[in-house]
Specification:
The structure is a homodimer. Chain A is of the alpha/beta class. Chain A is built from nine helices and twelve strands. The first copy, chain A, has helices at 15-18, 26-36, 51-62, 82-90, 98-108, 116-119, 153-163, 188-197, 225-241; strands spanning 6-13, 39-47, 67-71, 94-96, 123-125, 129-131, 140-143, 146-149, 174-180, 202-210, 213-222, 247-248. β2 (39-47) of chain A pairs antiparallel with β2 (39-47) of chain B.
C-alpha cells in the first residue's frame, strides 16, 4: 500500500531570530500542528527582513511542497515587508482586502481609530482569503497554498486553531517513546536491526546526560498503529534482553 | 567608510526539529555567538536526516557566505549521516581522523572501550581539523569554511567556546533596547523618520501584550557606538515628546 505523503515548508521571516535576540517558537509549534493534520514539515528557512531573500525562499519552497507557511513581518511598521515580498513572489499586486479593513476598523473603533499605518495590516496579495486572528485584529492571509501567519507565537497559535481540519493531509505520523539508561553508542547496532525488522517504522535516538548518567530516548515513528506497536514492543524486548531495562514512555 | 561585512549561514540537521519533538536552541545560541565575533547570521535552513537535502543546503550556502555551520547528526547511530553528506557536498572521501580516534580511545578507555560504532564518531571529511568537545569526547569538525557542530545545545556551546576569537570577523553589531507602553501602530511613522535621521542605524520593533496592556520594545542596532547612542537618544526623546515615556533598557 503506497500512500500519498503531504508535505509543507516554513519560512521564518525576521532579523530578530537571526540576531539571536528572540528564541523562535513557531518552528516547533507549526511542526506539531502540521503533524496532527497529516502533513509533514520537510524544510524550514529563516531569512532576514530583506525582500529578495523572502522572495527567493518562498518561490523555491511553494512549488516543492503542498503547503508553504510563513511567520513574521505582517505588523504595521516599516520592517514589516512580508506581504509585499510574497505578492512579488506570486506575481500579483498588493491590494487592501475589504474584509480585513472592516475587521481592523471594528477592532480599532475603540482604540483610537484606523490610522493609515494600521491600515497597512489590511494589505494582502490580490486574490487572498483571510485567516481569523482572535487576539489582535490583524488577520493572517491565505493565497493558494501559501499561508502568511504572525510572528508572535500565541497569535500564530490562534490562527492555526482557525485552520485546524481545513487542510487536506494524509495519515498522521504516530510515535511512541522508549527511554533507557544506556550510552547511545552501545545500542547503535540494535537500533538498526530493529528498524530493519519493521518495514514502515523509523527509530530516532536522542541521547542525554542527566543526574550524572548517560541515557537515551528512542522515538519510534510510523503511520501505521500496528507497525508502531510491533516495532516499539520489539525494541523494548531487545533492550531488556541486552540488560538495559526499557522504560516505556521515555525518561 | 564602507566596511567588509562577514556573513554566516547555519544548517540545522534533524528530523526531531522538523517533527516538533525538540525545540531548537542552536539557532539563537549560534546567532548570538556569531554576533560577538563580528559575523552576521544571514540564513538558517532546517533539513531532515536525508543526505540529498543536507548536500543541497550545504552546497548552496557554503559558497554564499564566509562561514557555514551545521548542527546535529554527528553521533554514533544509523541516523547520524552528517559527516557522509558533507563529505559528498565537499567532494572528498570520509576518513577516520587519527586525532579523533585517539580522543575517543582515551574517552572510552574507562567506559567500555572504543567499539566499532563509537569509532564512527572519529570519521571526518578528508582534510578536516577538529573542534574540541570538553563534555563528551566526540569532537566537532572544521573543513575550510564549514563547521560541523553537535546537535545537543550544551555540547555545541562548548565547541563555540573553543572557537571564540579564532574566526575573522568585522565590527560586531551593537544594540540598545528601548521599551514603551504604546501600540506599535501608533508610532510606526516615528520609527521610520528616526531611522532615516541616523544613517547606519536600524530600528526593530517588537510588540507585546502584557499585564493587560500593549507595549513595544525597540531595538536600535549599529556597528558604530556613536551612531547607536545618537539614534537611541533621539528615539527616546521623540517618544517622550509624543507622550509615550521611553524606558531605556526595554520593558
Amino acid at each position: 500500500m503506497s500512500e500519498r505523503i503531504w508535505t509543507a515548508a516554513l519560512v521564518v521571516i525576521g532579523d530578530e531570530i537571526l540576531s539571536g535576540r528572540t528564541q523562535d517558537r513557531n518552528i516547533a509549534q507549526i511542526a506539531s500542528w502540521l503533524n496532527v493534520q497529516g502533513i509533514r514539515l520537510r524544510e524550514v528557512r529563516v531569512v532576514p527582513d530583506v525582500e529578495d531573500a523572502i522572495v527567493e525562499a518562498v518561490n523555491q519552497l511553494r512549488t516543492r511542497h503542498d503547503y508553504l507557511f510563513t511567520t513574521g513581518g505582517i505588523g504595521p511598521t516599516h520592517d514589516d515587508i512580508t506581504v509585499d515580498a510574497i505578492a512579488r513572489a506570486l506575481g500579483v499586486p498588493v491590494v487592501v482586502h475589504p474584509d480585513a479593513q472592516a475587521i481592523l476598523a471594528d477592532y480599532y473603533a475603540e482604540r483610537g481609530g484606523l490610522t493609515e499605518m494600521r491600515l497597512r495590516m489590511a494589505r494582502a496579495p490580490e486574490g487572498s482569503s483571510l485567516i481569523p486572528n482572535r487576539f489582535s485584529g490583524a488577520p493572517g492571509i491565505r493565497h493558494g497554498n501559501v499561508f502568511i501567519m504572525a510572528g508572535v507565537p500565541h497569535i500564530t497559535a490562534g490562527m492555526l486553531d482557525a485552520l485546524t481540519g481545513s487542510l487536506e493531509g494524509g495519515a498522521p505520523v504516530l510515535s511512541e517513546q522508549i527511554g533507557c539508561w544506556v550510552a547511545e553508542s552501545e545500542i547503535a547496532d540494535l537500533l538498526v536491526s530493529t528498524e530493519h525488522a519493521h518495514e514502515g517504522s523509523q527509530i530516532g535516538s536522542y541521547p542525554f546526560f542527566r543526574e550524572g548518567r548517560v541515557g537515551c530516548n528512542f522515538v519510534v515513528r510510523s503511520t501505521s498503529r500496528q507497525v508502531l506497536d510491533a516495532c516499539a514492543a520489539d525494541l523494548a524486548a531487545r533492550l531488556d534482553a541486552g540488560g538495559w531495562p526499557a522504560i516505556v514512555g521515555g525518561i
